[in-house]
Amino acid sequence: MGRLARQRGDLSAAAGTEVDQTLDAALVDAGAAAEVRQGRLVKPLQYSGFAPAPIPRAPVSRRKRGAEEKAEDEAAQARAREEAEVRKARERQEAEAAHQEWLRELEAARTEHDERAEKVAALEKKLGKARKKLEEARQRLEVTQREERHARQRLER
Q1: What predicted TM-score, i.e. pTM, was given to this entire model?
Q2: Burial letters for 67-86: b for 16+ Cβ neighbours within 10 Å, e otherwise?
Q3: Higher-confidence position of 43 and 101
Q4: From CA 155, how far away is CA 53, in angstroms rounded?
Q5: Where are the alpha helices (DSSP H) in the chain?
Q6: Residue 10 region, left (φ>0) first, then alpha (ψ -120 to 50), else beta?
Q7: How far apart, in whole angstroms, are the C-alpha atoms of residue 37 and residue 27?
Q8: Cα-flanking dihedrals φ and ψ of residue 138, to 5°?
């Protein structure tokens, strides 16, 4: 197996040797074979010496194997639920932090809006006064123009 992986270029020579040694150990030792089948090796296995004589074991009943698998499934489900709860708690914390940030932004926007609304009100008040003065000036202009016309007409007579 290690040779095949090395030929494809997927493994270094050292890694290929470790694969070969692990598989050799699994062929000779039932315990090593079980570990390999579970796929949970954290380091390569090694075996040296002669193969031990097979030790007769009582066959594991399907019920026991089923119970073990059920226990493993339940444990895996419990881990998945726990991971989901942790993920959900983390997402909630992130959402809460984002919410707090948006509350601060909202308060800043409200403050800016109120300040600008006050400025607009003050400017509208000034504009109202300016329009009133403009109207008064327009009226004085009309009166002055009328008086000037009358004065010119009197001169022309």
Answers
A1: 0.40
A2: eeeeeeeeeeeeeeeeeeee
A3: 101
A4: 146
A5: 2-8, 13-28, 30-38, 62-156
A6: alpha
A7: 11
A8: -65, -40
